[in-house]
Amino acid sequence: MSKITFKNITKFYGKTQVIKEFNGEFEDGKFITLLGPSGCGKTTMLRMIAGFEKPTGGEILIDGKLVSGGDNFVPPNERNIGMVFQSYAVWPHMNVFNNVAYPLKIQGLSKDAIKIKVEQVLEAVHLSPYINRMPDELSGGQQQRVALGRALVSSPKVLLLDEPLSNLDAKLRESMRFEIKEVQKKFNITVVYVTHDQTEAMAMSDKIIIFNQGEVQQADTPENIYKHPANQFTADFIGKINFIHGQVDNNKIKILNSNQAINYSGGKTGNIVLGIRPENIKIFKSNAENFNNNKNILRGELKHSYYLGDINDLRIELEDCGEIIRVTESGNNFNNFQPGDKVILEFEDYLVFNDAK
Q1: What pTM, to 2 d.p., does this model score?
Q2: CB distance 238 to 225 below 8 Å
Q3: Are the CB atoms for 46 and 34 separated by under 8 Å?
Q4: Last residue of some domain: 222, 237, 252?
Q5: pLDDT tens figures, 233-264
Q6: Residue 221: half-sphere exposure toward Cβ, Cα within 13 Å
Q7: Are residues 102 and 131 in the same domain?
Q8: Rounded distance between C-alpha atoms, residue 65 and residue 74, angstroms
Q9: Where does a domain end: 181, 208, 237?
Q10: Which domain holds residue 75?
Q11: Coil, strand or helix: which one is 338?
Q12: Percentage of residues in the chain with pLDDT exceeding 90?
């Protein structure tokens, strides 16, 4: 059982409030990601779980035991938590075995017990062939796996990871995402993961908590956050999206400064912001006959087209209003459209937000 409970947690640095009353529960054995832009409070949350920071107010409980709150404070070394930092933080003078074994030696385990546990962990993080290597003989990804193994070897209740992949190149980051998720499932451990990378969060998480300026914007599964964002900030932070200003009028959304409109049967009124994901838009030439008249359409002119291999990334200027819309489609269609083409954009799925202006 490795449940983490937060009750009315706040955090101030001087007069600056960085966490605004956080309540919630991280379930046992789940992969929880704290996601948001730099300075939003996510690393502060992680450090309070670890015991490196004390909350200004509220309580943190691990497995029902109060570890921070009031006059109670359990120091980091007594919380049974493993942590992996952005920097690999491996001991340069120790080989892989001794780096991973270090926490067990501090605990005073026997040599035989240490050997068994270290070998089990090294197998789980795919480092068994490198057991005698020194850190300077390892790649960045291998060094990060050493840090991961060292954090896991003591069988912690909770594993905390603070942007552990940010120093790796793009291809290695992608492979490490899946390795970390595989290890989490193998050990059935509660993971709290901090990142500003939405792709990492989507690929690895059971639950994502999106922060902005110390306040939770949404806490949900990756799928629900993507398909049903709570607000415009969340929609913009997760995935790619077009925002178009409009006005609701008589079961229509009229595009501002334009004669174009789409059907609308929702409950919002007045000025709104229309959100359309680029991948939800189909593009046709203006003289095409195979688009669906029963769906929503907007008309415009293709301004730019970018070939990215797997996708064709297009920019279309809407008629009348001049708004620029992004559309992504298969890279196989790159030569079907040229800048200057008049086009029709067909879509069915869209989001509607209240206009904050």
Answers
A1: 0.90
A2: yes
A3: yes
A4: 237
A5: 999 999 999 999 999 998 999 999 999 999 99
A6: 3
A7: yes
A8: 10
A9: 237
A10: 4-237
A11: coil
A12: 76
